[in-house]
Protein 1
Amino acid sequence: MHKFANDIIPEIDKFSEKIREELTEEMKEKIRSIPDDKRTEILINVYAKCGAITIFNKLEQICVYIEADLADESLLYTPMHGLICEFIDEYEVLLKRLKQKNVPYRNLTAVVRKWKVNEKNDEIDKKIRQLEKSRPEL
């Protein structure tokens, strides 16, 4: 948890700032008119240049501990799952490219897959609780 709070979160903040500098609103507007394959290549290069690969590597390290049961996943899930899943979703195009280049990120992929299922189950449980509260009494 210490590594996540003191290393990865600040790294993601720096990365986000670099992305905002590289992909200004004007640049985003220009990119929208480019064919999908070229737009994808541009985004992959910008994400890589701004440091996404370093973040993927650090997240993979944490996920190795989770998958090897060396870290208590139940303690890490609540504070980490939202940020990690959001980051992976946002920069998935680069992650997919890296996987094509035989950089598997197996542990990161496994943890994110599990956590997305947990998120969905949490949403369903919340809806069930809301429906139960709204059920009329006999």
Note: The helical segments are 2-22, 25-32, 36-50, 52-67, 73-90, 92-100, 106-134.
Protein 2
Amino acid sequence: MNVLYWVFNYMPQWEAVSKEIASLRQSLNGRIKGSLISLNTKDRSLSLAADEKRIPLPYGLPLYPLVKPYASRFDVNHLFASAAERFLTPILARQNGVLTIAKDTPMLQGFERNRDAFRRMRAIVVQGERDREILRQM
């Protein structure tokens, strides 16, 4: 199985979600091939080599049309973001997407905007009770 992890600001040395992804990639290595795309607002360097790609934002936005064809190469596209993330969620929901809501979504409009995408996701993992309750009510 080939999994592509999507995250904003991958920094496994100190950031919790990044550590979780690094742990998944390491522990499943050999059974699941795990690649990574990090869309970065903090690190401005571009790296498209190997299994760990780093794309600086907003400079990476011209690559946006390539997301769908690239994501279609993978068995699973696992996005770690807030429920309000509006660029990748609709695309990845159509490409065997899994969403881990790893960041608080303060406004209900974020959930509402992605309602259709949530229904197309293979799975949604929540890390907070509030997010779980909101999704149940949808």
Note: The beta strands are 2-8, 33-40, 52-56, 76-82, 97-103, 123-126.
Protein 3
Amino acid sequence: MVWSSFRSRDCLISISIAMSVYIVMEILEYAADLTISKWVAPQPTTYVVLASVVFLTASAIGGCVAARIRRGATKFLALIVMITVAVLIDLKVCTIPVPWRYEFGFLTLGPLAVIITSTLFWTLKATRSCHVSVYVR
């Protein structure tokens, strides 16, 4: 799927859109982490749960934004999210001991949040446009 996008001429545009959306996603995640840590001041275990919710929410929003800008960018955004999560798992950034299921959840649900929300976004948009075209006639 990604390889066929590499062969097309619009590949660089999709990659640049995915990188831009990813940078904005990370800025929003960082702002949410700062807000949560100042307002709630969670315990380490609570922070682990809140971080996963913030990550999946940011991934879902990023997937919708990437799909809105360019449909092909969602594949690259999901790939970027997967690579980032794999690198962060390998570097052991999380100092709180968590089971392997937690890391595996990030590795699978992060890219899925990007792809599923963008697919739902386009499906709802397509059905809405079909209903509008039926009423216009």
Note: The mean pLDDT is 80.
Protein 4
Amino acid sequence: MPRVTEPVAVVEKWLSDSAKTATEGRHAAFMDLISNKVSLLGVPEFELINYDDWYIQAKSEFSDGTVSEVHYASAQIVASGLISIIFRTVETVVLRDGPSDINGIEGVLQKEEDGKWRLTHQRLLSRDEAGRCNLLL
């Protein structure tokens, strides 16, 4: 019988790995946490960001040192199943030469065929929606 991992542990590990690889600028390791089927919604001026867009953006930000730190707080499990977990959290991206970018986000992690949990969907929450979800920005 396959080992079942608690959704909280999966999300906490994914968030920790995401923050660490982004903060350290390790592009390949960071992108390995993202599914090639990913969709990112809610970014101002963009209808949808896919894997290729995210890959290029992260590569640019990591190589020029734009991002100095990433961290997450107040993670909540919204729903979970055997191969899918929906969560919400507050993401803080500290920029080297500017203010911090703080957003409530909703994400979906799926266990892919190789056994790794990867982000398949992320949506930036409006300030009002984040407040209704008890995510303090």
Note: The helical segments are 7-23, 27-31, 51-63, 127-132.
